TrEMBL record:
Residues 47-198 form the Protein SirB1 N-terminal domain. It comes from Yinghuangia soli. Belongs to the UPF0162 family. It comes from the Bacteria. This is Transglutaminase-like domain-containing protein. Pfam families: TPR_9 (PF13371), Transglut_core2 (PF13369).
Length: 285
């Protein structure tokens, strides 16, 4: 039986983790997984990451901070890609489990960004400089010094190395600019977490999905609102989802709060949202 006090405590811990410096990406992502499965013990995921890190450490030829980026990438690809089997395929985009770190660790399948989190967190545990690179339409990792010597690897493809031209080609294919000076910059942890939660929201709002998946979208929005930086429009989305899931009073209050927030800059939008709030309260009658 689930502990009724577990959810608030879990949310409080998530808020604490995402505001820490540095952010523990692994714990934050495991806490997301616990939203989908409240019975989850996040310690299991942390132990698995530690085990994978031990396997990587055993293959390093010396201190991690002296390992050449290409050699470090090769070790990570061998241990995480070839041996552990972490990778992805197009079908994984339709599966919520591909966005949940506990499931990714269990199944060895996931979206590019979750597989990259595995690489980042395993690398961190052994002292390898692995960081996320948020390309338009795809997510990869950089290994080394982003301002000096580094290599790019694609965990979704088992750790295949990418050239800078490859990365630019991916950006072009997704409608991005290959000349963006920030194209290969390390992604901030908060941006990584928001992108993961956005993926979950998109999955849950697919019109072909069952109506009850509004609950999944709701927790993804509510966790997004706990991040230090998030789009203000998520407040409106939360209000709408609360109404959809039957909390007309709470949803109306959230919509009114959002209308107050944007009223000074967009009166028309504010009035539209206030009308949505009135309609939500009318459903109580």
């Amino acid at each position: 039986m689930n502990d009724p006090n577990a959810a608030p405590a879990r949310r409080a811990r998530f808020a604490e983790v995402v505001r820490a410096d540095p952010v523990d990406l692994a714990e934050a992502c495991l806490l997301m997984g616990a939203e989908a499965d409240p019975a989850l013990d996040i310690k299991t995921g942390l132990v698995e990451l530690d085990r994978l890190a031990g396997a990587v450490a055993a293959k390093l030829t010396g201190p991690a901070d002296t390992e050449a980026p290409a050699r470090a990438a090769a070790v990570l690809a061998l241990v995480l890609g070839a041996r552990a089997g972490f990778g992805g395929a197009q079908a994984d985009y339709a599966d919520l489990r591909s966005s949940l770190l506990p499931e990714v660790l269990r199944r060895r399948r996931g979206l590019p960004i979750l597989l990259s989190v595995v690489w980042i967190e395993v690398g961190r545990r052994v002292g390898l400089p692995v960081y996320g690179v948020a390309l338009p339409g795809h997510f990869v990792v950089g290994i080394g010094d982003p301002d000096g010597e580094f290599v790019l690897a694609d965990p979704f493809a088992g750790g295949r190395l990418l050239t800078v031209d490859d990365a630019r080609g991916i950006a072009i294919g997704a409608g991005g600019s290959p000349d963006d000076p920030h194209l290969l910059a390390p992604a901030l942890p908060s941006a990584i977490l928001l992108r993961i939660l956005n993926n979950i929201r998109v999955w849950a709002q697919n019109p072909q999905q069952a109506p009850e998946r509004a609950w999944t979208r709701l927790w993804a929005v509510e966790l997004s609102l706990l991040l230090p930086r998030h789009p203000a429009a998520l407040r409106r989305e939360r209000g709408t989802l609360l109404v959809q899931t039957g909390d007309f009073t709470g949803g109306a209050a959230e919509l009114d709060d959002f209308a107050d927030l944007v009223g000074a800059i967009d009166r028309a939008l504010a009035e539209t949202v206030r009308r949505e709030a009135r309609e939500a309260r009318a459903r109580l009658n």
